[in-house]
Amino acid sequence: MITQEQREKLRGWFAGRLPDDLFEELVEVTVDREEITVVGRIPGPKVAEGVSDAEREAAVEGRIQEFRERTRETRVGVAREAEHQFRRKVSWGVECAGQRALFTHVAAPVMTRLRQPERQVLDTLIAGGVARSRSEALAWCVRLVQKHTDDWLAELRDSLEHVERVRAQGPDADQD
Fold first, then answer.
1. Structural element, H or E, at residue 3
2. What is the pLDDT of residues 21-50, one digit of tens each?
3. Angle in degrees, CA 170, 32, 150, rounded to 5
4. According to the model, what pLDDT value does residue 174 have?
5. pTM
6. DSSP annotation of 38
7. CB 150 within 8 A of CB 144
8. What is the pLDDT of residue 1?
9. Would you list the DSSP string of 54-123?
10. Vertex 40, ends 164 and 54: CA angle to 5°?
11. What is the average pLDDT score of the chain?
12. Residues 106, 89: Cα–Cα separation, whole Å
């Protein structure tokens, strides 16, 4: 867990390091133990007025793919620097015309031990066609919890940042 100040410094590093013409706006920089995800806004494609939703969606997908290919070398160079400095993998994503797309990103394995009632929940999701495996079912459950508990998780993160600030002021702070 990193502090808000560390998160702001990380975002500032990317804001300063990214070429000015890469994104219209740096939308989000998120970080965890394994990965930094950088999401920027790119301009939407120009389409004729009154085109179908399918055509508009295809144009946005085409714009995202074009951006990904055209900027690959630049993004890889920045990622190498960041990975060396911050010791985390860097992933990229864009927002374009209200659609968000993440490029190759880390899918970190997480081990857990579950009792039978918990395994039965996962197996029910598999039987119902929601997931193909226990791993996929567990990821589905985590996304569901994440979707419905943003406020609670934000409060918990704030509390953890407070704990980190207090620890940093403690008697062992100078031993680093």
1. none
2. 999 999 999 999 899 999 999 999 999 999
3. 95
4. 65
5. 0.72
6. E
7. no
8. 65
9. HHHHHHHHHHHHHHHHHTHHHHHHHHHHHHHHHSSEEEEEEEETTEEEE-S-----------HHHHHHHH
10. 130
11. 91
12. 8
User: Rounded distance, CA 145 to CA 142, Å?
Assistant: 5
Distances (CA, A) of 108 to 33, 35, 95: 10, 9, 24
The two tokens of residue 103 are 């490029």
Distance, in Å, from the CA atom of 40 to the CA atom of 46, rounded to the nearest integer, reads: 19
| 155-161 mean pLDDT | 86
Distance in angstroms (rounded) separating the CA atoms of residues 161 and 7: 11
Nearest to 11 by CA among 72, 90, 73, 69: 90
Strands in 99-102's sheet, in edge-to-edge order, are: 25-31, 35-41, 89-96, 99-102
